Amino acid sequence: MTTYPPPQPDTPPRRVVSLIPSMTESLFDLGLGETLVGVTDYCPLPAAKQGVIPRLGGTKNARTGEIIALHPDLVILNQEENTPAIVRALEQAGLTLWLTFPRSVADALADLRHLAVLFHKPEILLSVEHLERQVEIARAASASAQPIRYFCPIWQDETPDGRRWWMTFNRKTYPHSLLSIFGGENVFAERERRYPLEADIGDAPAAPVEGHDTRYPRVALDEVRAAAPELILLPSEPYPFDETHRRELFTLLADTPAARTGRILLLDGSLITWHGTRLGKALAVLPSLLHPAASDGGRRP
Question: Going from the N-terminus, what domains does the chain have, and what CATH number goes with each?
Answer without folding.
Answer: 16-101 (3.40.50.1980), 138-294 (3.40.50.1980)
